[in-house]
């Protein structure tokens, strides 16, 4: 078996050594139990035989059967298609030349003599000074000899790809997610940049694009390829329990009062209690699913935001105490302080809108959603994304699609941040005179 096939093989032994692997079996057994309890004990014995409501019995059987079929078929397709794997590997970004220009630009900005009082903002200063950094082949720039007003930066590697130490490097896209230093996220196992909102999965031993979460009830990962079936599964599950609970509520009183000694079957009482529990839990899941669908976000996106919120809350509790923090929350005090930098921040690396050889690092706030478009576009992105990925076969096409995934509103927001000096130049030099 090839290494590529090994990377995408499901590790069944690993799954069933853990309790997570057996949870779907337990859920499936309970679904079978509900088929027996609802269809046979409730519909056939109680409604059909006891009350003689044959037409109601047939109608409810058809609806329950259709919902059960939709539930089980969507579950099957979740496993059949799987979460998906990247359409191709994305090579390392050639960021060295941008760091060199960023170093020289930052050093010039640190020099008070280079800062002009006529510049309206920091961005104006960067644009004015950065425009003097010309592209050439002078080795003085590589050595840091920048005494001239016009700095010649050795970034003549304008080709889209180059080789260095066995790795292929390509020019970075206009915008991409990065760490606090401006570097893209790299998967050492897959030997690829994590594009398309990918996260590595030990279950499939590969990166999964648009990784959403691992659903313990289904027993599989949810990614770009099976996310639409997961949504159908969640709504089918919710509607099935809603239908069963409402049906039993409507007819249980008639069954209970039918005769002096007639009561509900114990199996139906157990099913009713468990269904109410499931319905309450799945209602919360439906709300989360709809929220993610409308905002075009994933569970992993929200997980990072929630980790940041928890970090700030725990930090506030250590400083002021639990009771005071609770009172602050009740009074509407915002614990999510954007002025505090936590280990769970989100950053993007973007090319300067004017200077092509300068890249900026921008920290995102928790309420800024990079992929949120109008509702209809978000729904289409979710249900048609599998077809769009079929045309992606190399680094260029993947990165181009990744850039197009960012909404126009988000790009406008980033431009506003740049105009408001809410950014940091990508460099190794520590800024001192930047406000």
What would a concise description of this structure say?
The chain has 14 helices and 15 strands.
Descriptive key words:
14 helices; 15 strands; 51% helix; four-stranded antiparallel sheet; 435 residues; elongated; alpha+beta; disordered N terminus; single chain
Describe the structure in your own words.
This protein is of the alpha+beta class and 435 residues long. The protein has 14 helices and 15 strands. The strands form 6 sheets. The protein has a 4-stranded antiparallel beta sheet. Strands 1-5-4 form a 3-stranded mixed beta sheet, with no helix packed on it. The longest helix is centred in the middle third of the chain and has 30 residues, at 227-256.
Low-confidence stretches: 1-8, 135-160
Q: How many helices?
A: 14
Fraction in beta strands: 5-15%
Overall mean pLDDT stands at 80
User: By helix and strand content, what is the structural category?
Assistant: alpha+beta
Q: Which sheet architecture does the biggest sheet show?
A: 4 strands, antiparallel
Estimate the global geometry from the Cα principal axes: elongated
Helix content: 40-55%
Please state how the strands of the largest beta sheet are arranged side by side: 6-13-14-15
Number of strands: 15
- How large, in whole angstroms, is the Cα Rg? 29 Å
Distance between the termini: 57 Å
- Write the element-wise H/E pattern from the N-terminal end onward: HHHHEHHEHEEEEEEEEEEHHHHEEHHHE
Topology (SSEs and partners):
Elements: H1 3-7, H2 12-17, H3 23-50, H4 54-81, E1 92-93, H5 96-110, H6 122-130, E2 133-136, H7 140-143, E3 151-154, E4 161-164, E5 167-170, E6 175-178, E7 186-187, E8 192-193, E9 199-201, E10 206-208, E11 213-215, E12 220-222, H8 227-256, H9 266-295, H10 299-320, H11 322-330, E13 346-351, E14 359-364, H12 375-389, H13 395-405, H14 408-419, E15 424-425
Parallel strand pairs: 1-5, 2-3
Antiparallel strand pairs: 4-5, 6-13, 7-8, 9-10, 11-12, 13-14, 14-15
